[in-house]
């Protein structure tokens, strides 16, 4: 009966949790234990915090991950049914908001946050990063020695999810997606074997992992290209919503430029707060060279009036930490993305539609509702295209012209 199947399944999950405990000892956490509750409390969204796995595994190294996968991939016979392995989830930093994206009810969550080392090679050309690290830890190490890496734009975002999913960085026009900068993945396969995937060893897997998310195994380490990086000019400028037409035109012009300045990056945000009762425009502007107010960004910096301005010469640690305050923990969060053409009339219509949608719940307590435009000039796609030296699996065509990645969140 369905009841018997569910009972057998639940019993099987508990059995496999105890099998994991026999292999990994105190690296396995159970409900009501402090370490279990701490792990859940550090997810970004409330939805993820409310998911309750049968147990949580906290591997300390690649060998622990291999042991865990071997246990979880075993086949167990229960009566007349065969239960194939144990359903499990992989957690990096836990920043993806929807329930089940990096956590699981009635299963096993592998919490990778203890695998978080950051090591720069002697030549300062490759940085090896544990899959459970956050970008804040990476930038603190690299800023201290004048080195940069294409990585996350918010300090608290995890390395694992961003890199395997493709990943945009402030260096995207110069180097492409973050996944384009991976020279090697260390990954545990479904049978528990740990292998490397790079241009010469398992090259098909290396290609698939560049945008293929966590569908091919559990990545335990990323080796990313590093490069010299000094101070950059960056920050945020906040404006009133009546500047919308000028904002969208400046965005489209920057995005469509045939000779796109590879040092220029930005995020164009329209945010509504029920506490304030109105929309605000926030432009996160970045120029990755030590140059104050470069010409390529002046179409944004000259828009008036400005409510606030944090533009300054800074480093990646400081810049990405500034963005954390805009993404507090423990709230109900949801976001989705769509990709549009680079057309000012259409982008204005998208905003108007978002504003119309908002009206039915605009007075909800604590509401923050936003529409974010992120430029995808064709030069970004060219770094990972099929004819590039190391193509990615995203399938974007640079000949399609400039695109706009729109993120809607609530």
Brief characterization of the structure:
The chain has 410 residues and is α+β, with helices and mostly antiparallel strands. It has helices at 2-24, 34-41, 46-49, 62-72, 135-143, 159-164, 172-175, 203-209, 244-256, 298-301, 316-322, 344-358, 378-382, and strands spanning 28-29, 55-57, 75-78, 81-84, 88-91, 108-111, 118-120, 126-130, 147-148, 182-188, 194-198, 218-225, 227-228, 232-240, 264-273, 278-287, 306-309, 312-314, 335-341, 368-376, 403-409. The radius of gyration is 23 Å and the shape is globular.
Question: How would you sum up this structure, described in words?
Answer:
The protein has 410 residues and is of the alpha+beta class. 28% of the residues lie in helices and 27% in strands. The chain has 13 helices and 21 strands. It has helices at residues 2-24, 34-41, 46-49, 62-72, 135-143, 159-164, 172-175, 203-209, 244-256, 298-301, 316-322, 344-358, 378-382, and strands at residues 28-29, 55-57, 75-78, 81-84, 88-91, 108-111, 118-120, 126-130, 147-148, 182-188, 194-198, 218-225, 227-228, 232-240, 264-273, 278-287, 306-309, 312-314, 335-341, 368-376, 403-409. The strands form 5 sheets. Strands 14, 15, 16, 17, 18, 19, 20 and 21 form an 8-stranded antiparallel sheet that branches. A 5-stranded antiparallel sheet has the order 7-8-12-10-11. A 4-stranded mixed sheet has the order 1-2-6-5. A hairpin with a 2-residue loop joins strand 3 and strand 4 (81-84). Helix 1 (2-24) packs antiparallel against helix 4 (62-72) and helix 5 (135-143) packs antiparallel against helix 11. The chain is globular, with a radius of gyration of 23 Å. Residues 1-5 and 76-83 have low confidence and may be disordered.
């Amino acid at each position: 009966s369905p009841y018997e199947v569910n009972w057998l399944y639940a019993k099987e999950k508990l059995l496999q949790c105890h099998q994991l405990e026999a292999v990994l000892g105190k690296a396995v956490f159970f409900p009501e234990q402090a370490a279990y509750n701490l792990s859940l409390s550090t997810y970004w969204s409330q939805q993820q915090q409310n998911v309750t796995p049968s147990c949580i595994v906290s591997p300390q190294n690649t060998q622990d991950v291999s042991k865990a996968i071997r246990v979880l991939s075993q086949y167990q016979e229960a009566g007349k049914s065969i239960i194939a392995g144990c359903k499990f989830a992989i957690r990096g930093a836990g920043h993806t908001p929807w329930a089940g994206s990096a956590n699981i009810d009635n299963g096993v969550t592998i919490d990778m946050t203890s695998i978080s080392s950051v090591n720069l090679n002697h030549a300062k050309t490759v940085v090896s990063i544990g899959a459970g690290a956050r970008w804040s830890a990476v930038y603190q190490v690299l800023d201290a020695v004048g080195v940069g890496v294409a990585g996350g734009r918010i300090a608290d975002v995890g390395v694992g999810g961003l890199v395997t999913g493709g990943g945009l960085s402030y260096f995207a026009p110069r180097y492409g997606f973050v996944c384009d900068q991976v020279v090697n993945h260390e990954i545990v396969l479904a049978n528990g074997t740990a292998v490397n995937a790079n241009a010469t060893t398992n090259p098909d897997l290396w290609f698939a992992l560049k945008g293929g998310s966590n569908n091919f195994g559990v990545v335990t380490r990323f080796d990313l290209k590093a490069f010299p990086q000094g101070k950059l000019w960056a920050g945020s400028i906040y404006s009133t919503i009546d500047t919308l037409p000028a904002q969208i035109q400046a965005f489209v012009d920057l995005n469509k430029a045939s000779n796109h300045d590879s040092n220029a990056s930005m995020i164009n945000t329209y945010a509504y707060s029920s506490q304030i009762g109105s929309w605000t425009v926030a432009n996160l502007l970045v120029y990755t060279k030590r140059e104050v107010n470069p010409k390529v960004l002046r179409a944004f910096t000259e828009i008036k009036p400005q409510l606030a301005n944090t533009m300054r010469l800074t480093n990646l640690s400081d810049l990405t930490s500034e963005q954390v305050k805009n993404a507090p923990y423990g709230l109900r969060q949801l976001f989705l993305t769509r990709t549009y053409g680079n057309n000012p009339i259409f982008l204005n219509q998208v905003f108007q539609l978002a504003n119309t949608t908002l009206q039915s719940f605009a007075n909800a307590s604590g509401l923050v509702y936003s529409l974010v435009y992120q430029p995808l000039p064709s030069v970004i796609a060219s770094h990972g295209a099929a004819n590039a030296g190391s193509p990615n699996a995203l399938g974007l065509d640079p000949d399609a012209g400039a695109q706009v990645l729109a993120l809607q969140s609530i």
